[in-house]
Amino acid sequence: MAHWLIKSEPDAFSIDDLKRNKTEIWDGIRSYQARNYLMSAAVGDTAFFYHSNAKPPGIVGLAKFVATNVVDPTQFDPTSKYYDATSKQDAPRWITVKVKFVEKFRNEIPLDTLKATFSGDDLMVVRKGMRLSVTPVEESIAAQLLEMARAQ
DNA sequence: GCCAACGTTGGC
DNA sequence: GCCAACGTTGGC
Fold first, then answer.
1. In chain A, count of helices (H) and strands (E)?
2. Nearest residue: Cα versus C1' of B3
3. pTM as predicted
4. pLDDT for A104-137, tens place per residue?
């Protein structure tokens, strides 16, 4: 089972929104690199939920992938800002996952703590200029993050 | 609100 | 196929 970090702006979709909705199709991914990561994900993989453009930015909770190879419906919706007129119904370009709420952490892990604890090699999100919204997290790093997030 | 970093677009 | 221009992301 693999671990991931997924970014969202809380103004657009927050951990509390996921908690309320229970599950959500992770739509709007329009980066091939991020899409390719999601296409390599498996049901049961866990994802650290990261708030970007937040005060402070940081990891706020945990989610789980409950479906993979999900066709992002917004690519075929002309009213969506993620509409992609060049994507074909019989060969959808944007494939994503469905995520399920697991927990909201007792302790949010702010970005400055992440930077103080991990190198860019350990955790991609702390790299300067990192814009990718889906990144892999190694098992040992995931274990450390969970410990930090759940500490009393 | 600023701006560095990065991806994409389009002229050539 | 190069690369300048442009748009977006996202920390600060």
1. 4, 6
2. A129
3. 0.94
4. 999 999 999 999 999 999 999 999 889 999 999 9
